[in-house]
Amino acid sequence: MRYLILSDIHSNIDALDAVLEDARAAAADAVLVLGDLVGYGAEPEAVVARVRALAPAAIVRGNHDKVVAGIDNDDGFNPLARRSVALTRGLLSPESIAYLASLPQGPLAVEPLVEICHGAPFDEDWYLHDEFDLLEALAASRRPACLFGHTHVPLAAARDGEDQLRVLLAGGGEHGEVTFAEGGRYVLNPGSVGQPRDRDRRAAYAILDADARRMAFRRVEYPVERARDRILAAGFPPALAERLMVGR
Length: 248
Ligand code: ZN
Fold this sequence. Notes:
The chain is an alpha/beta fold. It has eight helices and twelve strands.
């Protein structure tokens, strides 16, 4: 089974379409979505429609999906994110808002090798940034490969037996690949499709081959100026447009 892994699309249809085009060669059998379909970008309705058309084998909600759907408040959001929530709601059909509200909370077990969550397996809204958090995530995960998003930074870390944490991949750079050793435990973030934050503005995604026990991290160029212009035209805060240009 080969999975296409998408996370943090954030209403960026230009990035999503570039990823889907790039991923065609990988001929994935199924799609896994790690949450935050919407927020920040200008095309939430198109992104929700595209994701629904992909019929994901598994999908979990992100913090932005929850707030936009009205099932969580925006207390934890900064002013930019709050403004984006209000605008995003106005761009979504009631049907798409209902779809976002229906998305399940992670973690979700997908198959014997893989589980997915948005932030962390122990808390869907937690940011896995430091070594301590990654170790806690490895301890909490119920599958050898625990996929997460939320930080918008590609990352792979592992623990084999009693060994200490090993960071195998962090941030942008060229295409990386991680092979899962028998008995190893892994936490893996494919990076963000629609709002990368590792100073690489290219869209990020991953292909996980469960039979080969391997995950490939991919980056792809997309028309970032078009995404920026859409954000500005829709009246979102300009900072949300400019950060796309530099991947921050
Ligand atoms: Zn996000």
